[in-house]
Amino acid sequence: MSTLGLSSTDQKAIEKFRREAVEPSETKLVLLYFTAAWSNPCKTFGEMLANLAKSYASRGVVLCTFDIDENKIIADQLRVQSVPTVYALFQGQLVADLTPANSEQQLKEALDQLLKQLPVVADNDISGDIEQLLPIGNKALEDGDAETAVAVFGQIYDMTPEDAVVAGSYARALILAGQLQKAEALLAALPEEMKNKPDIHRADTALALAKQAMSVNVDQLENLRAKVENYPDDDEARFALACDLIAVSDRDGAADQLLAILAHNRDWNEGAARTKLLQLFEVVGIEDPWVAAQRRRLSAVLFR
């Protein structure tokens, strides 16, 4: 773009465009996002695009935002007709109009395709970002904040898909959010050497319990409660009740039932009650205070 005969405002806008967009595009894939303060759609779309760009930063994606009212000459030169508009720039050339991809999934698919085709230089120094994001993601999981957990661990997983701890945490976040099919697909696609890792096993267990929860109904649960109350030595009914209580997230009730089986007959069904209790511990988290308390109860039953 020539600056000859332009106002100082337009010259500054062009210099900024060169500095922040054209120069980085020599090695990076630059997303040119054109927005406007008066546009309501831009508010939600811009936030989504910023989060997406951050998750792709380690793969060489850079986001540059331009307000069309403040950068009219840039918008005119690039023939921006409406907002929001998103172009992809590489080595100073527009390589794609991403505006039609108006959902996060569509944008991801478009970016993945571009990154496969272009020699974009990835940024491998991502340890600082991960260190900042991990505590946020872990707290969201502990607090049951599914939306935040999925967003944060999704970003971390995009940066380090080979990390079993991250993959397992992302899968558990998806399970917490009710996205069971996506979690199952993620776990199934992992390399074989990762599938035996403790964090992946924990996610597998959480997925199995979540699937079971889908088949539990209130009548079934109440029938099992009544049966256990009337026949307290019926370990099979008590075990079924414990499984359903786990499925509906009543871990206290489930632990009570499993410990009752162990107190009555610790070897019942080849130690199934102890195995199920340990699975519950695994899903909750070995370092969780609740698990520590239940372990003390388990020891009291087993070594009385």
Automatic annotation (TrEMBL):
Q: Where is each Thioredoxin domain found?
A: 1-116
List the SUPFAM superfamilies.
Answer: Thioredoxin-like, TPR-like
Q: Where is the signal peptide?
A: none
Q: Which organism is it from?
A: Zymomonas mobilis
What Gene Ontology molecular function terms does this protein carry? protein-disulfide reductase activity
Which Gene3D superfamilies does the protein's record reference? Answer: Glutaredoxin, Tetratricopeptide repeat domain
UniProt GO cellular component terms: cytoplasm
Q: In its UniProt entry, what is this protein called?
A: Putative thioredoxin
**GO annotation, biological process:** response to stress
Report the Pfam families cross-referenced here.
Answer: Thioredoxin, TPR_19, TPR_20
Q: Which domain of life is it from?
A: Bacteria
